[in-house]
Amino acid sequence: MKKILLGTAIILLVFLAGCRDKPTPEDRLAEYVSQWNKSGFAVMYENYLTTETKEAFPEDEFAARQEKLVEDLGIDHLEVTYDKPGENPKWDKEQPAEFDIHVKMETLAGPVEFEKPIRLRYEEREKEKTWFVEWDPSYIFPDLEPGDEIGISRTEAKRGEIVDRAGIPIAKNGTGYQVGIVPEKLDEARKSDIAKLLGTTSEAIDKSLNAAWVKPDLFVPIGKSAKDDAARLDRLIEIPGIAAREIGMREYPYGPALAHLTGYIGAISAEQLENLADKGYTETDQIGRRGLESLLEDRLRGRDGMKITIKKEQEGLEPVTVAERAAEDGETVKLTIDAELQKVAYDAMMGEPGTAASINPGTGEVLTLVSSPAYNPNEFIAGMSGARYSELEEDEKTPLFNRFAQSYAPGSTIKPITAAIGMEAGTLDPAAGLTITGKTWQKDTSWGAYRVSRVHPEAPNPIDLNRAMVYSDNIYFAQQALAMGKDTLAEGLKQFGFGEPIPLEAMELKASQISNDGTIGSEGQLADTSFGQGQMLTNILHLASMYEPILTGGTMHKPTLLFDEEDGQVWKEGLVDPAHAETLRSTLRNVVVDGFAQSANLTDVPIAGKTGTAELKAAGEDRGKENGYFVSYPAENPSFILAMMVENIEDNGSSDYVAAMSAEVHRYAAGR
What we know:
Elements: H1 2-19, H2 25-37, H3 41-48, H4 51-56, H5 59-72, E1 76-82, E2 97-107, E3 110-124, E4 129-133, E5 149-155, E6 162-163, E7 169-181, H6 191-198, H7 202-209, E8 220-226, H8 230-237, E9 242-251, H9 259-262, E10 265-267, H10 270-275, E11 286-288, H11 291-295, H12 297-300, E12 305-311, E13 320-325, E14 333-334, H13 339-348, E15 354-359, E16 366-372, H14 377-382, H15 386-394, E17 407-408, H16 415-425, E18 440-441, E19 452-453, H17 465-470, H18 474-484, H19 486-495, H20 523-530, E20 538-539, H21 540-546, H22 548-552, E21 556-557, E22 570-572, H23 578-594, E23 607-616, E24 625-634, E25 641-646, H24 656-671
Parallel strand pairs: 6-14
Antiparallel strand pairs: 1-2, 2-3, 3-4, 5-12, 6-7, 7-8, 7-9, 10-11, 12-13, 15-16, 15-25, 17-20, 18-19, 21-22, 23-24, 24-25
Helix pairs in contact: 2-3, 3-5, 13-24, 16-18, 16-19, 16-23, 18-20
């Protein structure tokens, strides 16, 4: 019985297998289209093409060619569909089965879409009897015929320029010079001089001169020179055999003065190319490498025009355009920066290491962002040698270091903010005087060896707020901080923006901090913090912004750098009572008139402000390095607030050295 049942089952399976439908033309087409949509060209060729198609087109003309086109043309989002047949279609193995297909794709030159019929034929092969697809190159693009070539051409878009608030270019598409050699005129003995001037090597020059295309009378490019480097170009031109041709080149008219703000562009790196492959970059592209050139890359970068064409094999036929996208130039980005004011501020710092920032107190617009010293971005555009870059890296003044993006101990420039917090808390009465004697002070013996020091013990008692500010009395502010308490001072500083990101679009600036962990842990730290020492750090732009409430009656605006961004946005408000702000304005004017910023006490340009010195004590020394500050504004027409810091001023007359630099900026602004 078991044998009978087993035999019956086998007979039934054979019968069912014989009854099962063979794949229909639609089944085969659906499989083919599925492979097509995922660019499975090798599988399509191997398993789905008719014998006649394979004889006409070797695999490399089908699979390898289409794989390369996907890469070269940037083909993406390929979508192939077909029209389904009606109900219960009848297929005749002696006749082709025909369908309509629809092809859509995205390319570097834009979308491509077409539809056309496709045929399948039934073939009986040794291993397989089923339907196979007839194919020719028109299924790549409709006008493509055997022997035709597909090409892609590119129209370069212009990079957007960066301009200041008056529309003056600070990064523009200018010109420079291509330096080259006419071999038959070259003085071989001068080759090393040429290499030195161009920051290259004699071997590199020889490699260019030995290229296969070179002829004795042809101009052979060997380097570039920026337009602002006329002295070097003149020296090169004097050498026999050297010539120069004007070429398009990115240009930075203000050179080092705006270098850390604009940054520069350079050749795209292999890593960047890989990361940005989906954005259409190529190995010959230039890309923002530092500063706003990098941060605004998406806005500044143009979109190159692309055109895909079919070059017909038959002579006399015009190329056929498959897809075309017009070039779109990059955006011109306008900043709130005042380029001329920035240059004056940079020059006033005389190459000293430091930073400066200025803002419009009524709007929050950033007028200057200076890092001194700096590099010349035009050198990078022309091509900087490794030796020259090493020279910049090893310079003790670190010109490659962007100081306005960092934060530093603010010293006594924070005292007006401490005073404002105390007055708002009701613990500081500006008219009440304290009796302070001696050069140092401590609350009691619980402070151990720690004592607060002041620079001017000769300050006459009683010491009220005005006198404390004029004489920059650390002991006064330490005692006021103790009166208000750790929590009050810390919370007040947070209200001024400490411990949170500086909301400046397009720039990355280090946030200001009260301390490393954002709290004040001891009375000694409380005292230090009150006069800008301890672990307190501020960013130079934020420091300028913190003086805004003194001029606006309590409001601190969100700083803006992009001209098209809405200005006058409130960042913080209610920070200083208008009456207290008036008191602070009077006091800050007296700091310049009666205090120790006499270099800024100009007869024709009344200035108000606060000096500051931050001591950076070195291990094992009683006195280390000092950074000097001056935060100032025009007293009668406060159209801008300027915060300036210079490093290592201990041998240059303390913070008055910085006040003198700031005065140059005020003179310029007043005379415009």
